[in-house]
Design a protein that fits this description.
The chain has 11 helices and no strands. With 235 residues, the chain is mainly α. 26% of the residues are buried.
């Protein structure tokens, strides 16, 4: 029955499936070439770009004589990661919306590059986690942490706890049909270091650079209002 359903879905146009539906099909039927061809057509160029960009950022191009060839090899590792252990990475992914797919794949791409650099002993110490919570705007985050209203807020507050607090605040601040999109814009900028020009060209965003910049500025201001509250008097 399931195989018949796969054939039926293929026949009525895989391109009509949203990202979450496509990933579920890839996870459930990893041998289906039509499904994976659609995955390739939809995501491969972006996967290459993520790995290329992360490689440049981390200096892989400086230690690799054939950088673009190296990037292609790492793209192959990305796909290998997806299909290992019966597509465990895809099966365990909780797809909340179209944008969460890109964020998830981006973090995997980043970890692929980091692992390659570890193998080359180009990084002395790094912690690889499949999480979108990587800090780049450290001064802004440090300002939040020092003034956080959490009872355990200190200068050495665990960044993971801080990011959880920031995301919880964002969840309250953002409303309406563009909530997921605006959350992604903030995460790409703050946690992954994407600049507004890059975010504006990100799949599914569909906004001008000016509009992206305004959203980032607005959310930072709202977060500061929400998180930089003076501590309440205990007496």
């Amino acid at each position: 029955m399931y195989n018949f359903l796969i054939l039926l879905i293929t026949a009525i146009e895989l391109k009509q499936l949203d990202n979450c539906q496509l990933i579920k099909l890839c996870a459930k039927d990893p041998e289906n070439r039509s499904v994976w061809q659609e995955f390739y057509d939809r995501f491969n160029a972006q996967i290459f770009l993520w790995i290329y960009r992360e490689g440049k950022t981390r200096g892989l191009d400086k230690i690799s004589l054939q950088f673009e060839e190296e990037v292609r090899d790492l793209v192959g590792e990305f796909y290998l990661k997806l299909v290992q252990n019966k597509c465990k990475v895809l099966r365990e992914f909780k797809c909340k919306n179209e944008f969460s797919v890109y964020l998830y794949f981006c973090t995997i791409a980043k970890s692929i590059v980091i692992n390659d650099l570890i193998r080359r002993k180009a990084l002395k110490r790094v912690q690889v986690v499949y999480s979108p919570y990587e800090i780049n705007d450290e001064l802004w985050v440090e300002k939040i942490s020092k003034n956080s209203s959490r009872p355990d807020a200190t200068e050495d507050l665990n960044y993971q706890h801080l990011i959880e607090e920031i995301n919880a605040a964002l969840d309250e601040i953002l409303k309406g049909k563009n909530k997921a999109r605006d959350m992604l814009i903030f995460q790409l900028n703050m946690y992954m270091g994407f600049i507004p020009e890059e975010i504006a060209n990100y799949p599914g965003i569909g906004l001008s650079v000016k509009r992206v910049r305004n959203i980032i500025t607005y959310l930072k201001q709202e977060l500061q209002k929400k998180l930089l509250r003076p501590p309440e008097n205990s007496g």
